Amino acid sequence: MSERLLEAAELSRSFQSGPRRIEVLSNLDLEVDGGESVAIVGDSGVGKSTLLHLLGGLDRPDGGTLTFRGRPLPWSDGEAMGRYRNRHVGFVFQFHHLLPEFNALENVEMPFRIGGRFERTETAAREILERLGLAERLGHTPARLSGGEQQRVAIARAVAGRPSLVLADEPTGNLDPSTGDRVFGVLRDLQKERGFSLVLATHSERMAAGCDRILHLAGGRLHPLSDSAAATFFGGSGDAE
Ligand SMILES: Nc1ncnc2c1ncn2[C@@H]1O[C@H](COP(=O)(O)OP(=O)(O)OP(=O)(O)O)[C@@H](O)[C@H]1O
Ligand SMILES: [Mg+2]
Fold first, then answer.
1. Which ligand is nearest to the CA of 233?
2. So what's the pLDDT on residue 240?
3. Is residue 153 part of a domain?
4. Residue 1 falls within a domain, yes or no?
5. d(C-alpha 62, C-alpha 215), whole Å
6. Does residue 45 line the site of ligand 1, with CB under 6 A?
7. How far is the CA of 1 from the centre of ligand 2 (A)?
8. How many domains does the chain have?
C-alpha cells in the first residue's frame, strides 16, 4: 500500500462576479496516494484549474482543508506555503508559462534558484532536458522552440526538483494530437521512473484513460466518471482534443 500524499476535505472556493458570488468548488473531497495518477475531466468553466491551483498552494480556499503528508497546509504562513510550492509541487500549465528572455536550461534552473538551491542545479536541469530529448536545445529561448518542445521544457521545469506531486493543467491542450500523445508519454514515463503523484486536468480521452483513475468535476464536486458523462466528454470515438 502506498501512503496517502494529499487529502482535500470539504474544499470550497467561490469568486465574486459583479453583484453575485459564484460558488465554483463546493465541499469537494479528494484523496491522492503516493505515485498514483488521477485525471480530472469536466466541462469548460467547471473549476478544474481552480482546483489545481488550490492543490498546488497557488490559491487559497474559502473553506475546507488540504492535508499534505498528514499535515494541514498552513495558508496564512506565506513562507511555509512558498516552501510547499517550491519543494513538493511541480506545476505544468496549459500554456507553458516559460520565461521568454531565458533559454531552456535557465528556465528549468529557475525554481531551484528561487528556492535558494544552487547545488547541482545545472546538472539536474541538463539531465532532465537531455532525458526529454532536448540536449540540442538547451540554449534556445522559448521563441526558438516548437510548441511540443516548449511543453517538454515546462515538464522538465516541473519535475527537475523531484517534487512528490505534479499538477498538470491540460498540459497538451495547445498541441496537435500526436505531439500531445508524445508529451503525455514523456510525463507518464517520468512518473513511473520517479514515483511522483500526478493530478491532471484534461479534455483528452486518451490522456484520461492513461491515468489510474478518472474523476468528473461537476456541481463543485468530484464524482466517479459515469458512462454517460464519458460519452458526453469524449463523444464516442477518437479523442476530444
Ligand atoms: N480569479 C477569478 N476571479 C473570478 N472568477 C474566476 C477566477 N478564476 C476562475 N473564475 C471562474 O471560476 C470558474 C471556473 O474556472 P476554471 O478556470 O477553474 O475552469 P476550468 O474547468 O479550468 O475551465 P477550462 O476547461 O475552460 O480550462 C469560471 O466560471 C471562471 O470564470
Ligand atoms: Mg482550466
1. 1
2. 43
3. yes
4. no
5. 22
6. yes
7. 32
8. 1
Query: Relative to the alpha carbon of 93, which ligand is closest?
Result: 2
Residue at 16 is within a domain: no
This prediction has a pTM of: 0.91
The per-residue pLDDT for 111 is: 80
Best residue among 41, 43, 49 to mutate for probing ligand 1, ranked by most atoms within 8 Å of CB: 49
Torsion (CA) 188, 85, 53, 146 in degrees, nearest 10: -50
The answer to whether the CB of 220 is under 6 A from ligand 1 is: no
Gap from CA of 45 to ligand 2 centroid (Å): 7
Residue 125's alpha-carbon distances to 98, 192, 231, in angstroms, are 14, 19, 41
CATH number at residue 99: 3.40.50.300
- Burial-class residue 14 by CB neighbours within 10 Å (0-12, 13-18, 19+): middle
Structural domain range at position 86: 34-64+77-234
Cα(59) to centroid(ligand 2), Å: 14
Residue-level pLDDT at 60: 96
Q: Is residue 72 part of a domain?
A: no
Ligand 1 in reach of 46 Cβ (< 6 A): yes
pLDDT at 235: 67
